[in-house]
Automatic annotation (TrEMBL):
Keywords attached to this entry: Membrane, Transmembrane, Transmembrane helix
Transmembrane segments: 6-27, 34-53, 59-76, 125-147, 159-178, 184-205
SUPFAM superfamilies (UniProt xref): ATPase domain of HSP90 chaperone/DNA topoisomerase II/histidine kinase (SSF55874)
Record-given protein name: Sensor histidine kinase NatK-like C-terminal domain-containing protein
Species whose genome carries this gene: Subdoligranulum variabile DSM 15176
Keyword Transmembrane: yes
Domain of life of the source: Bacteria
Residue stretches making up the Sensor histidine kinase NatK-like C-terminal domain: 324-419
């Protein structure tokens, strides 16, 4: 059978670099755009030079050289992407087998069209651009672009081991015929391309399983937040009921004491006590009983933990929302704020502000808390591991609302904008 030229080493280097670049573009990066671009260019030059220089090594050195190239891919991914070492290993395994498939497919098509033509002639280069563009563009558009939503890919040790074994097996099987014959034929290319494609598909299925598992964990976390908020609301409502009953009892006692004794100083003290009780009864009366319960309970909590809590709210604006959604949005946002400020050593900086008001036909809920360090946001504009904020966002979207998060002058600001009517989109 006619021997065919093997894949140019620079073609392989380009495929490996592009496969890694998909992750660099999709995931959150460690450095800015300029540094990432400079590192990416250096990696492409280094990969190309290394593979080109090792293209004629003896067969015994071929595997170590490929392992060194894979190590370079791993360092590129781990250095440029803000991911864990385990996630970088998983991404490297996927990128490697994807690069093998793209390079094998492109060169097989080249040999079918021009079996004796150099890979550096204009038609060959045009085919290279077309095949790599379709393969990597398709993968990025339909799979990799979603990865940027998650700061943590959620790769387990088992998933990493499976990906490495699958990539290694696919590579070994796809190159077995070439290693035995020492030359490339159409049969070798058919086997190589099909096995690499199978490897890509199997690891893609594994990626979908990892994604589903991650989504399941997020849903469980959000569900736990919802249950916790509702339970807190029930407990808070009972606590407020008991406090109000005690206040009523105190007023009766004061009236009885006043009826029996009437010294001037005692009267003044009793007046002060009664005034304090009226002030307590008047606080957090927003017009919405669910909101009143949440705010009163949170006010008591803040007093116990040296947190300065300020609230200006028109509760009637939330009358269209059921109890569960009010607990989800307001309760979760306040929980996030209190958890954040409690980490501050300086009690004077433990500041929380909340405002609920009408704005241009919408209901604006604004939650602010002081934070000493800026909060990094992911591609969706959400804080990393921000299941609480994602829960608030999911509840707001039920009504056609939006949620925005940003940091400004040491303040973390969460805005929830809802249609005034409460109509669902």
């Amino acid at each position: 059978m006619t021997a065919l030229p093997d894949i140019p080493r620079l073609y392989t280097a380009l495929a490996e670099w592009l496969a890694c670049l998909l992750y660099v573009l999709a995931l959150r990066r460690r450095w800015g755009t300029a540094v990432t671009a400079a590192v990416s260019g250096a990696v492409l030059a280094a990969l190309g030079a290394f593979l080109q220089l090792t293209g004629s090594v003896p067969l015994a050195w071929w595997i170590p050289c490929m392992a060194a190239a894979v190590a370079g891919m791993y360092l590129y991914l781990f250095g440029c992407c803000a991911i864990t070492a385990r996630d970088a290993g998983y991404c490297c395994a996927r990128a490697f087998i994807l690069a093998e498939f793209a390079a094998s497919l492109e060169w097989q098509l080249h040999c079918l069209l021009w079996p004796r033509r150099s890979g550096w002639e204009p038609p060959a280069l045009a085919l290279l651009v077309a095949v790599y563009g379709v393969v990597f563009g398709f993968v990025y558009a339909f799979e990799f672009r979603r990865l940027g939503r998650y700061p943590d890919l959620g790769v387990t040790r088992r998933a990493l081991a499976s990906a490495v074994v699958l990539a290694s097996t696919a590579f070994a099987v796809s190159n077995l015929a070439f290693a035995q014959n020492g030359q490339a034929t159409f049969n070798v290319f058919y086997i190589r391309t099909l096995v690499d494609l199978a490897g890509v598909l199997v690891i893609s299925i594994q990626q979908e399983q990892i994604t589903e598992a991650r989504l399941h964990r997020e849903l469980e976390s959000m569900d736990n937040v919802l249950h916790r908020q509702y339970e807190q609301y029930q407990q808070s409502r009972e606590s407020i009921r008991l406090i109000n009953r005690h206040c009523h009892d105190l007023k009766l006692q004061i009236a009885a004491i006043r009826a029996e004794h009437d010294p001037g100083k005692q009267a003044a003290a009793l007046d002060e006590m009664e005034s304090g009780i009226r002030m307590y009864e008047a606080q957090n009366k927003t017009g919405n009983p669910v909101l009143d319960t949440l705010l009163t309970a949170k006010s008591l909590y803040c007093q116990q933990h040296d947190i300065n809590f300020t609230c200006v709210a028109d509760g009637h604006l939330l009358d269209f929302m059921p109890t569960g959604d009010i607990c989800t949005i307001v309760g979760t946002a306040l929980d996030n704020a209190t958890e954040s400020v409690q980490t501050l050593q300086d009690t004077e900086k433990r500041l929380i502000r909340i405002a609920i008001f009408a704005q241009h036909g919408f209901v604006m809920l604004r939650f602010e808390n002081y934070c000493e360090t800026p909060v990094h946001l992911d591609a969706d504009g959400m804080p990393p591991h921000g299941y609480g904020v994602r829960t608030v966002k999911a509840a707001a979207e039920k009504y056609g609302g939006t949620v925005t998060v940003h940091s400004e002058d040491n303040w973390f600001i969460l805005r929830v904008l809802l249609p005034h009517s409460g109509g669902k989109s």
